[in-house]
Amino acid sequence: MTRSTPRAEPLSSSLEDYLEAIYRLTPGRTAARGRDIAERLRVRRSSVTLALRSLSARGLVNYAPYDRITLTAKGRTAARDISRRHEALRHFFVKVLEVEEQEAERAACKMEHALSPALRRRLTEFARFMKRCPLGVPQWVKGRRFHCPAPPVQRRRTGGRGKP
Amino acid sequence: MTRSTPRAEPLSSSLEDYLEAIYRLTPGRTAARGRDIAERLRVRRSSVTLALRSLSARGLVNYAPYDRITLTAKGRTAARDISRRHEALRHFFVKVLEVEEQEAERAACKMEHALSPALRRRLTEFARFMKRCPLGVPQWVKGRRFHCPAPPVQRRRTGGRGKP
DNA sequence: GAATAATGTTAGGCGTGTAAAACATTTATC
DNA sequence: GATAAATGTTTTACACGCCTAACATTATTC
């Protein structure tokens, strides 16, 4: 019966992985099964138990032995954030950098833990920009090389940072 | 005098950090001091000793107790690669995403270990593209937002993944 | 060259994250 | 509902990476 205030320390990469796994395994609101978490993370069931205890102590999952596993509100929020970091990276790798799906996934998995809010925001904004902006962009692509056929439009109004 | 065949397993993130630190501390060819490695990695000197043993066992550094620390040819190659991964990320974060220098450094430090050769290449090529390409690019920037003055060209040829 | 400071090493310990194996509980299945 | 299968848990152990504290060696300084 772990009472006391939840530990506030930042999550380890490992625990973030567990949290994310639970999140992804419960699209609606149903409970996750330890078995599936283990499989997803390629880890033993016993390891899952330990991790769940730790996450529970932090107030991120509702967990009691042999009971159903769900995310708390706090846990869900945290998990969503982690998941977004993951997606931001994966998306960027696939859509902008155009690397293989699998490779992107693998890298995103490992890098997501280091993606700060600022970086994530920028990355996402940037990917969106790349998608929308119809000219600077698609020159990059198609196979290995890219070219920039852009005409010498050059200077448009420099928005404010005057440098005469 | 560590003989035996070097261990071939992939380096841990931690060992990569040590290797990189040594690399950066020896611009020319002089030996690195454990003291400095420790300081750089914010780690105790004793930890450095352990790491050096491990790196030595892998044939990446020339090391014997109380002796000078240098990289082997193999170690230098590996270190250069790691360093490049680091730089590729940092550069991208700073020059393209335009996040704060310090933040970029911090993220690069952690992410570098997961950057595959393919990804690194793409990232570098892309950053170069962004730098050169005079139009698609600089719209993104100047503070927080970006805009894409491009005309509504919209749909370009959908390259293959048709989804009617 | 002795005394002192700086640097490097060893020994022992801790926290984290994992696994293996034995056990407990729950869920299927008949 | 008894039995078997699946799932979850505990215990014990191990690898890794770091630390502290004590010790060893090397470098400095006078």
Q: Per DSSP, what share of the residues of chain A sits in E-state strands of 2 or more residues?
A: under 5%
Computed Rg of chain A: 21 Å
Largest interface: A-B, 45 and 43 residues
What's the quaternary structure here?
homodimer
Report on the biggest sheet of chain A. 2 strands, antiparallel
SSE series of chain A: HHHEEHHH
Which residues of chain A form runs of ≥5 with pLDDT under 50? 141-164
Mean pLDDT of chain A: 82
Q: How do the strands of the widest beta sheet of chain A line up side by side?
A: 1-2
CATH architecture of the largest domain in chain A: Orthogonal Bundle
Number of strands of chain A: 2
Tell me the overall shape of chain A: elongated
Q: Into which percent range does the helicity of residues of chain A fall?
A: 40-55%
Tally of helical runs of chain A: 6
* Count of the separate structural domains of chain A: 2
Summarize the structure in short:
2 copies of one chain form a homodimer. By secondary structure, chain A is mainly alpha-helical. The first copy, chain A, folds into 2 domains: 65 residues, Orthogonal Bundle (Arc Repressor Mutant, subunit A), CATH 1.10.10.10; 50 residues, Diphtheria Toxin Repressor, domain 2 (Orthogonal Bundle).
What does this structure look like?
2 copies of one chain form a homodimer. Chain A contains 6 helices and 2 strands; from the N terminus they run H-H-H-E-E-H-H-H. Chain A has helices spanning 13-25, 34-41, 45-57, 73-96, 101-111, 117-132, and strands at residues 61-62, 70-71. In chain A, strands 1-2 form a two-stranded antiparallel sheet. The longest helix of chain A has 24 residues, at 73-96. Chain A is elongated, with a radius of gyration of 21 Å. Chains A and B meet through helix 5 and helix 6 of A and helix 5 and helix 6 of B. Chain A binds a DNA duplex (30 and 30 nucleotides) through residues 12, 14, 33-35, 43-51, 54, 65-66.
